[in-house]
Amino acid sequence: MTTSNSLPTAAGAPPVISGKDAGKIARAAFVGTALEWYDYYLFGTAAALVFNRLFFTNMDATAALLASFATFGVGFAARPLGAMIFGYIGDRYGRRPALLTTIVMIGTATALIGLLPDFGSIGLAAPIMLAILRLVQGLAVGGEWGGAVTMAVEHAPVEKRGRYAALVQVGSPVATLLASGAFSLVLLFPSEAFDAWGWRIPFLLAFPMLGIALWIRLKVEESPIFKDLLAQGETAKVPAFEVFRHAGGRLLIAVLAALLGVGGFYMITTFAVSYGSNTLKVDRNVMVNATLVAAVAQIGVTFVMGRLAEKIGPGKVTMWGGIVSAVMSFPLFAMIDTKSPWMITLAITVGIMLIAVAYAVNGALLTELFPAKLRYSGVALGYNIAGATSGFMPLLATAMLGISGNQSWGAALILAIISLLTAVGGFFGERLRVQDKKLVTS
Which of 213, 247, 271, 406 sits between 20 and 30 A of 176, alpha carbons compared? Predict the structure, then answer.
């Protein structure tokens, strides 16, 4: 690990971490993150299959789909604000209270979406309320991921941070399995039943899932590194301001490194599902089921890349993941254009596996770009600025279909660009990694 470019770390006695507890903490972070992403991914699938028809019914089909994706993008726009709010709490008062708050917010907002009347019942109030709840989701997710990986990494021995950070990332494919699986089941209902009440079931399941995740998170101890900062009186007063002022270059690298994991994922899932079902007229179940197969493959890739990051560095893994994803962007969308269920499933699976290379090590790389006193805010801001930027990619790709005559080259070009930007982030990120003060493992 390189330290020549490190920001100063706190002086004082080294904090004690328990290698025995590291796995337990990482698993708790994983469970909470899986719920957060389940809630978030549900909205993406519903934006492609439900909201355009039931909440924007006063528009033509293309305008309704664009409006649905715009509402989807609102959640991403709110994420940097959530990162600032919960980054302040996490760096000033503790990682634990911030994470407990985020999980309650997003679970409640998601379940309430399942109770919303549609446009036919209350008119314009329906999409307005939908946008507000999406905003709440975005604020909560803005603080969730950064806190979860920070907790997992700060409880782990330095030499094992890659695997524990990767465990948190497994929450994403597990959430995809849960969200896509739930939608696959309710899509088996007759169309009338699905539109009337079936689509609501996956959202309402957020209530019992929230109870389980909250119970697990309440057992999690505060980060030993944060406790040490608190004891030394070295917490940041306004952490987000200090990130922009003292670590702006690192923040930019974090944004670049995270672009592919967020934007690429939604290009291969949310946009591809919409493109396949609405433009290519492929059966919706084919598109949704392809994401299920891809999610299973992503789990394996994530674990392998987490271990590889411990050997060669997360920045190098990120760089090569970005390069290969860029090379494969056009071939992947060409495979989807065949309309063959097998080729579509293969394309989405390979696409997600490639994106997972960089995504798997996002936690390990981003947490080591910032010193401990700015870590929650720095990681959350970097990841969620990337999210705010790339969350509108499905909207942009959909708009480009009109320019390209419903051809997929515009979407492939977007994916290639963000892949190369992430490769740049990985290249420089590896050279900017910092070390915490010496840790003692019990």
Answer: 406
Interatomic CA distance for residues 313 and 5, integer angstroms: 16
> CA separation (Å) from 285 to 194, 253, 266?
13, 38, 18
Q: How far is CA 145 from CA 29, 259, 366, 377, 416, in A?
A: 9, 14, 11, 11, 25
Pair of tokens at residue 133 = 């709840």
Distance of CA 3 to the CA centre of its chain: 28
Task: For 381-414, give one letter per residue: b (16+ CB within 10 A) or e.
Answer: bbbbbbbbbbbbbbbbbbebbeeeeeebebbbbb
Handedness of CA 112, 141, 186, 267 (dihedral sign): positive
CB-based burial, 159-178: b 16+ in 10 Å, e otherwise: ebbbbbbbbbbbbbbbbbbb
Q: What is the model's pLDDT at position 2?
A: 41
Distance of CA 52 to the CA centre of its chain: 23
Least confident range of 47-56, 89-98, 216-225, 266-275: 47-56
What phi and psi, each to the nearest 5 degrees, are found at residue 312? Answer: -115, -10
The share of the chain scoring above pLDDT 90, in percent, equals 41
Q: What is the pTM of this model?
A: 0.83
Question: Which class for 311: exposed (0-12), middle (13-18), buried (19 or more C-beta within 10 A)?
Answer: exposed
Q: Report the C-alpha gap between 429 and 424 in whole angstroms.
A: 8
Q: CA–CA separation, 200 vs 55, rounded Å?
A: 13
Largest Cα–Cα separation, the chain? 65
